Amino acid sequence: MKRKLLLTALALTLVLLAGTAYAAYPDKPIKVVNYVGPGGLMDVTSRKFVSIAKKFTDATFVVENKEGAGGLVAMQAVLEQPADGYTVFAATTSVIPKVLTSKKSVDELVWGFEWVAMLMKDPEAIIAASGTPLNTWEAIAKNALEKKGSQIWTGPAAGGNDHLMAMKVWAKSGIEAKWIPYSTGPEAMMGLLSGQGVAYVGNPADIGGREGFTIVAIASPERSKVFPDAPTFTELGIEGLEDEVMWRGFAMKKASPEEAMVWWEDLLKKVAADPEWREFLEKDGIEVVDYGREKFTAQIKKDIEDAETYLKKYGMIK
Amino acid sequence: METLSHLYDGLSLLMGFTPLVVILAGVIVGILAGAMPGISPSMAVALLLPFSFGMSPSMGIVLLCSIYLASNYGGSITAVMINTPGTPSAVVTAFDGYPLTRKGQAGTALGVSLIASVVGGFVGIIILVLFSAPLARMALKFWPAEYFALAILGLSTIASLGGGRWLESFIAVMLGLLLNTIGLDPLSGVSRYTFDFIRLYDGFSFIPVLIGLFALSEVFMGIESGEVNRPPVLPEREKSPWPTLRDYFKLKFAMLRAGVVGTVIGVFPGAGGTIASFIAYDIEKRLNSDPDSFGKGNPFGVAAAEASNSSSVGGALVPLLTLGIPGSSSAAVLIGALMIHNLQPGPELFTKHPEIVYTLFSSLFVANIFLLFLGLLGARLWIKAALIPKRLLYPMIFAFSFIGSYAVRSSVFDVGVCLAFGLLGWMLVRSKFPVSPIVLGMILGTMIEKNLRATLMMGGPALFLQRPLSLVLLALAFASGVIPYLRERKRKKALRKS
Predict the structure, then answer these.
(1) pLDDT tens, B242-259?
(2) Residue B431 DSSP one-character state
(3) What are the percentages of helix, strand and coil residues in chain A, rounded to 5?
(4) What is the total count of domains within chain B?
(5) B190: burial class by Cβ within 10 Å (0-12, 13-18, 19+)?
(6) Would you state the pLDDT for residue A125?
(7) DSSP symbol at B243
(8) How far apart are CA A266 and CA A258, in angstroms?
(9) Which B residues, 27 through 46, put their C-beta within 8 Å of a C-beta on chain A?
């Protein structure tokens, strides 16, 4: 009798243990932590992603906003949580140069994460005001040479992704210019319209819905289907700028369960194939991708390398 | 004429059960959120943003705009009743609103702030509907040189804010400007005085500073002076504590002037309602026959502050609708709301989805009317706050201050900031230093620094004088900073002679 009881107890324990070990991820709500405020680009993207993901999973997502220090606050907040896959960081390209310019440890902040899902590639673009004579790349480049370094380029945040792109363009095309950062991209565009700067660095979608702007060069391998008039850098004879993008994606703390990471990779594959998701991004000339850990990590490595090279070259880091 | 018929169409779309309930809900949420210290209009709009996703694009925008409009008023309630501006733009409302309450005229303060909000709101919307195109063209004339000059004009208002205490005001505004240098350099991204502490990268969060300086310092003063044990001041007027229609009518020009100032300044991204209210208040004080009563409970001060910050809502929507560029942080959240519905903010909205634009316009009119009635109903309730004994009120202010500070960025550090600035505010008030110049310095510091340096990069110091608008604004700033000082000196001289 005793033996029977013992066996039953043992069996029960095993079942329970197995239950915990194999409880399918996710069995509780997943927090998606944004570094921008509600209504910001990545916030809108996260919310759209989550609303489409609900077609494929019963999981509950909670989109949170932890603003501050260009993403460093959110990164730290996520890294302080347990590595259980239930807290996900919603990132964009901009956080990489941010970590570098803030002199925080790349190993700790960037490689403290496993980069699990890259959602898209938004090509970088140089934008000019259509109403001025300087509305082609040739005119801008010629004017820059004449001005000997005093031509003004605008965009958001100093040392951010767009500033970095400007540095790359200057280096690869052999021109010099000054970068004047504005609080936000739209304010910088307004500055362009009022003649404060000659070129704005951003993404093609920035000109959508606004009048008076022309894309003078786009950093993608081929012309955009949505903005077919914009020439690529390769067409303009500038090499090495055929794949400069702003990406958006999700990362989780290193050493999170393999199961959780695989689940996110699978989910991204499903969402990336969804017509509503594609329409949401493709209408803005953004390429939808479904990169998992391997390809996303390769992108991050390239970003770090690029940021180090150019931020050093232009004296923003030592 | 075409605009009128579009507006009529927009209005008829709103005349149903659901739209009216949406506006009503938006106005109620807005008032309450605005009144909560720590929840700014942009946060209120952002908090309700997810609710708008499930609605039709027009209803979603109607909801958010109603919240935006109402929260700008809501901030004045706590400013008037407990000297705790619920929103940054209500700081100026507290200057005269709270002294009125202390004198037992809370009804006047509440009534005037509501009516001024509604009148200012209407002025802003009317200007938005009629003049958005020329205003947008004017906004494009603004270069960093003009933004710098505008900020200096804003700064020059301290000459009248300090009530004759020039040196103290000057030191306080300098303190505000210096505090602003903490954080990342706006042009080069280098970190300054952050001690590698990530929370300081963006500098001090504005709301905890504001709550500390105004609300907590008041509590500390009250405890020190023994006011905490005194019975509350009961409303003076026996029959009714509320202003009469004639009282409101006397303020008509003040409200209209402030409304126009608020709308125009609201158009410029980065300037916004707070600067507008400082400037409008300053103008009113100069025009008033009894400028010395400002800061001691003059209804004209309350009217100017509230009318200008409410009218800035209309102003902030001008660049949003004409250029696709948000005029304020709340307008930036509206852009996000449009994007999630696959709508492009900007001039295209007028051509592709005119129904949304005109529903938005009409909803602002309707929301403003709802605000009037809900505000009148609510004021009957808010005024009771004047009856709460200080022994109960102070702990409540303390609790709300901490919650509000925490809510901004979910950060305990900000609670500490609030407490520290509370102590600083208390020490300053005891030593007869005005605290409002600190706030002004902190609001304008970044704007001044960024635009000064951008102008120098663009064309050197000569640019300030070569650009006519910048020159005019700088001259105005100079005059408004120096004239009160000279006048005061003359007066003192005359006094000495006699």
Answers:
(1) 888 999 999 999 999 999
(2) T
(3) 45, 20, 35
(4) 1
(5) middle
(6) 96
(7) P
(8) 12
(9) 42, 45-46
When the candidates are 3.40.718.10, 3.40.1190.20, 3.40.190.10, 3.40.50.300, the CATH number that belongs to A125-218 is 3.40.190.10
Distances in whole angstroms, Cα of residue A2 to Cα of each of A9, A23, B173, B283:
11, 31, 83, 92
Written as one letter, the residue type at B116 is A
Q: Kindly list the residues from chain B whose CB atom is less than 8 angstroms away from the CB atom of residue A97.
A: none
* Cα A276 to the center of its chain, rounded Å: 20
Q: Give pTM, 2 decimals.
A: 0.87
ipTM exceeding the 0.90 mark: no
Q: Could you say which of A40, A51, A157 has the minimum Cβ distance to residue B336?
A: A40
User: Is A180 in Cβ contact with B333 (below 8 Å)?
Assistant: no
CATH code of the region A25-122+245-313: 3.40.190.150
Q: Identify the H or E element spanning B367.
A: helix B354-382
pLDDT tens readout for residues B43-95 = 888 888 878 878 888 899 899 999 999 998 998 998 998 888 878 888 899 99
B64 touches chain A (CB under 8 A): no
* Helix-helix angle B468-497:B144-156, to 10 degrees: 20
Note the pLDDT of residue A21.
47
> Do residues B322 and B331 lie in contact, with contact meaning Cβ atoms separated by under 8 Å?
no
Please give the DSSP secondary-structure letter assigned to residue A40: S
| Domain segments of chain A as ranges | 25-122+245-313, 125-218
Residue A82, C-beta contacts closer than 8 angstroms, at least 6 positions apart: A253
